[in-house]
Amino acid sequence: MYFTNIKKLKEDIIEKRFSEKDRFLYILLFIMLDTIFLELNIFPIEELNIIDYASSIINIVVTFSGTYFIYKANGGEDGNDFAGKYFSITWVRSIRFLLFLIPMVFIFSILDSFFFKFSDFNNEIAMLLFLSGFMCALYFYAYKDVLEIKEKEA
Fold this sequence. Notes:
By secondary structure, this protein is mostly helical. It has five helices and no strands.
């Protein structure tokens, strides 16, 4: 893995020495650093509670494990076009799940306003569960999609 040597990286890509494992490692490192920095960015902004920390930990763990399992479903280092499958499938799955999640949050908010009247802390727990479930479902179904593609490619 190269950190600053773009010339050598381009040479490896041109000479077909840039494997699926290499692609996976770059993607994983990029996504994990992006996720971690996004999570760390919230910390100085407001006073945090246990829900904020739990949400950050869940985001990091689910992103890492989801990306890893999708890579394995694609055949690991012997797979084909991990990057293309990962980004395109998780994009479409994200849009589909958002189209489901947004109305659910809206409905929950209405029900809470008129019937449940949860405390702020309980609302945060409910949102944590909704969003964590969203992320887990996103990666689970993307994993299944990649498995299905892998079976049909063989």
